[in-house]
Amino acid sequence: MTVKLFPWMGIVLLVILLLGPAVAQPQPLGFVLDTEAFRKVEAEAIAQDLRSIGINVEVRVWERTALLDRIRAGERQAYLTDWGSAYFDPFDLAVPKLKTKDRGNYSFYSNPEVDRLLEVGSTGTDDKRRKEAYFRVQEILFRDAPWIFGYYKDEVQAASKAIENWEPSMDSRINLHDVRITKGSVIVVALNTNSIITLDPAMHRDRKTETVIRNIFDGLVTRTTKDRVVPELATEWKQTSPTTYEFKLRRGVVFHNGDPLTADDVVFTFERVLREGAIGGQSSPRKGLLGPLQKVEKVDDTTVRFVLEKPFPVFLQALVHFQIVPKRYVEQVGDNTFSERPVGTGPFRFVGGTLDSRIVLQRFDRYYGGSPALPPVGPAPAAGAIFRMLPEPATRLAALKAGEVHIVEDVPIDLVPDLKRDPGVQVKTTQGTRVYAVELNNSRPPFNDVRVRRALNYAVNWDAILKSVYRGHAHRLATAFLPSGFGFNTNLKPYPFDPERAKRLLREAGYAVK
Amino acid sequence: MPRAQEAMRGIVILRRVLATIPLMLGVAVVVFVIMRAIPGDPVDIIIGQGGTATQQELDLLRREFHLDRPLHEQLMLFLGDLSRGDLGLSFVKRRPVASILLEALPATIELAMASLFLSVLFGIPLGIYAAVRQSSLVDRISMAGAFLGISMPPFWLGIVAILLLSVRLGWFPTSGRVSLGVLLEPVTGFYLLDSVLTGNWAALWDVLRHLFLPALTLSVGIMAVVARVMRSSMIEVLRENYVTTARAKGLHERTVVLRHALRNALIPTITVVGLQMGVLLGGNMVVETVFGWPGMGRLVVAAIFSRDYPVIQGGVMLYTFIFVIVNLMVDVLYTYINPRVQL
């Protein structure tokens, strides 16, 4: 029996061997593209481009946190994500996003050379070498294509024509000290938030909250509307070693309650953030922003020394986000009362209001004048300022048109043309500091193959998508670095839209294409 | 009503108020478990989604919020605090949850009452009229209008109202609870009440103007429901024998409808109004967002997105309490409208 069957089996085997390669024809690439609801239109457009070269893409919409959980667990394949940078340096962008196993590395990208260069860039002491390292990282990233590289958006703000000397800042701060108003004397700002979190500079991690706080409080240094750090409460500083900075304080500065600013206030401010449980038994959520800062010491009444554990090239950028609080007052009234009735050295003093509706501020007449680098210097031209919490964009713009508010942040891009037609309104834009991209899971097929990742970068017609979805208010990026950040490599141009090249790469990787 | 019956009623009401306590506890525990079962870590949302957070920092805050403990320990801590009347601290705002909720509640109650007032004021007469003039042109128009009212999304309606009545015509302010120049001494947090208590009539007028558009937006849908329910129950009651009797006595039709039929026809309407009130007092996130109204809806939805567990738990317990109390009030109201109804 078995002997009789044998020739048959041999023939069957032969047929399989001969036809095998023909039967196992290349299959098309297929995957699920995950997105949050606010980028669904964009995700569909990307999927459309990919389908047109024969890739099977299904778009799935998620809630942000739920999606991030699944991404981190390595369960997803490709996802539209975004990541903000506050320090104008890849330190808080490329490092967490692309260093092996770093907290924001959702693509599971790992390249020892990139790790080494990012370390040089983010902890080096020589800016030239840091820059070279970052340049090199961008070249490698471009080649490795761990993501479908995306874009950054413009931030659009609008103001009444009665507002003068106003410019949106890249760090999304709204600095009212320098702004003049020609109709009335109180500037009303509409913020895009349900509620700011607190008025205690040490107890939040929120840009809207910081915008209000920075009009009440000043820091040692501040930032121009771009990325340059300039003196504010400090007149000058010097770096005495790679890990030590000394700041000279401005003389004659007083808090809103009349107390003079001294080195003790500065030390107290930073100890409140650094020490565990320092704020009524609770810890500040801002400690991480100070990186390796170890201690702050008073040298004399107007000199303060900061000691770091290791070099931290973005230290000055970090200090912009820390406002000095009055030691004597906080100790006297307690942390709770301080957050309800804040006292700072800023251009406006707190009058009243609630966090979820509006905060009313009045000009502080004994203000020292603010940063000499940001004219005008002196008390604020406006007699007062009010921040209103208006989370709905249509309402913010309606309030602007009705003359109830004067400055509006986060104008949706599709409402810009209508606003530009309004003769009483001025619209201004600045570069956003958030990177939007499609991250790919580099740790497993199909995206562990660089040919596939590069193919996708060629296959998406970003220019068309950005034009139709963001009306020219979004700009492509060659890699994961922002032009506003330190060490941006201008030599690299984004991947061109080249579906033929994409198909070729996919075919090489063994996939069927259209 | 006899004394004994009055006392009985008091006892029943008290018993039902006390019965909310285990109910609230049960709901709080369910929410406690659900919130921890859904993905997302509060500490991660507060500080982790930026490039500068460190692991030590994340661990420290998790420890401070007791999120490092096993679930049953967290639950015990929560229940322990609760037994002392402490709802805990908000993870995000780091302030007592109770005071956060109590700050948002007056704005929500004020808006809910105003929109309920508008819905009843227009909905009930409309329903009665449509029932009496059944199949007339007025009936058809008002019922078509009611259908439209139910179908119109408040989000859209609110924005259209703002653009038309505030921006174009300038009759009402676009948003907020009171004008920036109006100084209002806070007493209760209910701005209408506060302006009356302080005798500040300019403020009262200003507050009313601010209240009108959001209240109208919120009331359109409810008004429509009230009118439809009122109409159908009135039609039913008008077919009853006692109505025929009243008519046979030669009473004026107005008296028949308003004196004899209305009382009975009101019962289903009140049920509906009560249910709507429970929903309204939860705060309407959409209308609050559109009109920059700092109420409960916005607060709790924001807390859900940031996984601010203590605020969500406290908020849901407050909702439960409000809902039960409103239902109780509706039941008590029945007994006054129709004495044959017993609690």
Overview of this structure, please?
The complex is a heterodimer of chains A (514) and B (343). Chain A is α+β, with helices and mostly antiparallel strands. Chain A contains 15 helices and 20 strands. In chain A, a hairpin with a 2-residue loop joins strand 12 and strand 13. In chain A, helix 5 runs antiparallel to helix 6 and helix 13 packs antiparallel against helix 15. The mean pLDDT of chain A is 93. Chain B has a domain of 201 residues: MetI-like (MetI-like fold), CATH 1.10.3720. In chain B, helix 5 crosses helix 9. Chain B is globular. Chains A and B meet through helix 3, helix 4, strand 16 and helix 11 of A and helix 2, helix 3, helix 7 and helix 13 of B.
Structure, briefly:
Chain A has 514 residues and is of the alpha+beta class. Chain A is built from 15 helices and 20 strands. In chain A, the strands form four sheets. In chain A, strands 1, 2, 3, 4, 7, 14, 15, 16, 17, 18, 19 and 20 form a twelve-stranded mixed beta sheet that branches. In chain A, strands 10-11-13-12 form a four-stranded antiparallel beta sheet, covered by helices on one side.
Features:
heterodimer; A: 514 residues; alpha+beta; twelve-stranded mixed sheet; four-stranded antiparallel sheet; 15 helices; B: 343 residues; mainly alpha; MetI-like fold; 14 helices
Principal-axis shape of chain A equals globular
Largest sheet of chain A: 12 strands, mixed
CATH architecture of the domain at 106-306 in chain B: Orthogonal Bundle
Provide the structure class of chain A. Answer: alpha+beta
Outline the biggest β-sheet of chain B. Answer: none
Mean pLDDT of chain A: 93
Name of the CATH first level of the domain at 106-306 in chain B: Mainly Alpha
By DSSP, the count of extended strands of chain A is 20
Strand content of chain A: 15-25%
Low-confidence sequence ranges of chain B: none
- Fold-level CATH name of the domain at 106-306 in chain B: MetI-like fold
Distance between the termini of chain B: 14 Å
Instruction: Indicate the radius of gyration of chain A in whole angstroms.
Output: 27 Å
> Judging from the principal axes of the Cα atoms, what is the shape of chain B?
globular
Please provide the count of β strands of chain B: 0
What percent of the residues of chain B sit in helical stretches (DSSP H or I)? over 70%
> How many H/I helices of chain B?
14
Structural class of chain B: mainly alpha
Largest interface: A-B, 56 and 47 residues
Q: What helical percentage do the residues of chain A reach?
A: 25-40%
